[in-house]
Design brief:
Number of strands: 13
Strand content: 5-15%
Number of domains: 4
Largest sheet: 7 strands, mixed
CATH architecture of the largest domain: 2-Layer Sandwich
Low-confidence stretches: 274-281
CATH superfamily of the largest domain: Beta Polymerase, domain 2
Distance between the termini: 82 Å
Shape: elongated
Mean pLDDT: 91
Helix content: 40-55%
CATH topology of the largest domain: Beta Polymerase, domain 2
Length: about 450
Amino acid sequence: MPSLLTLAGDCYEPDLPGRLLSIAGDIRSAGGRAFLVGGWVRDALLGKDCRDYDIEVYDLTQDELVPILKKYGRTNLVGKAFGVIHLAMKGLSLDFSFPRTESKVGYGHRGFVVHTNEKLSFKEAALRRDFTINAMGMELPELTLCDPYGGIDDLKKGLLRHVGPAFVEDSLRILRGVQFASRFALTLAPETVELCRTLSLSDLSIERLFEEFKKWLLKPGKPSLGLRAFLDIRLNEFFPEVSPLRGSWDDLGEMLDNMENVRRGLAKANDDAGTAAIDNAECVALSDDQMMEFAFAAFLCGNPETALKFLERITNETHLLKNVPLLLGAYSNLPLGIVNDAPQLRRLAVKLGGLKLLCLLAKATPRKFYAEAGDAEFPEKLWQAAANLDLIEVAPQPYLMGKMLMELGFKPGKQMGEIIKQSFELQLDGKITNAEEAIAWAKNSSKF
């Protein structure tokens, strides 16, 4: 198995399928060259595992490549316009493409004419890529690095730099720069910043916008560096709904990094706990939807009133449109004294469907805010108070149900609904603590 030297100087043996190496050998025997390209190369140099194999084939035509691939599995020309051949094998699928150039001829990300040319050099083909860190290739099977635009030097310098003038042909690359800055701890090169400022995101669909924001806020990294790139490009002018936290972008960056740290801590705690029962109240799991709600709430906490407007510009995800504004509304009006107010905590839990995300948002808040307000330990106290009342995961449910009242002789109707409502209010106040007390209260408070 071939190995390579990472940027940290470590010897790294990537997980490469044996069949891929065999195919590369057959391609070379036929007079061609096969390169792993894009994100796989970048991640390998950083010593990260990546199973997203994109292979670019040089010096062979499509008619010459297909018979080679058919020896290994079923081929499908999935991207005729882009010269992409999908190879499906048992337990493995691979995409093979040909070097190409692209010409912008219309509006939006589909307005391109693509020309494949197996005789292009790697340098010529890589010119269409976005950033130098994504314009590297490794020739198979030896993993010989081809880096015509200095991507490895830029990675060492922590620099995100565009490859060439073709960058401007897809405005999505602006947001790709933001999420790459976050994920790989990079700073945009000054010339790339200036170029990004000349572009507009107005031609992009909400689906494409949303995917890049998710990669920024949900993939592991340092989100504050994404925020720095966001501001350097002046994307806050295109998205004025995104506001600094209490007037400070640095504090919002700290909030985002804290959010990532909290999320990483939860993941580690759950990994360490395995399948055993979790006694520690802070070892809770987040669903994919909750991950998104937590991340976007942290991002939009600077101005809760504009959160919904921003989300409507980038997504149709119903749970985000509903839950993030609710969460931020509760977060922005959270008094320190609530940790001693069980009725208010229960009502908040009913409103939010549990207090987990609210507690986590408090944990992500820069600690100095609570210290200045007089209680630096507020996030821990809030979590403990919610846990003591069993409000982390779920909201209180009414003890008194319609079926119980019907068994007592009540008839369905407005009166029954009002009794259930009053009983639930007393339950939230802590004056009714179980179903038996709720039934007794119903008997004593109503005639039927």
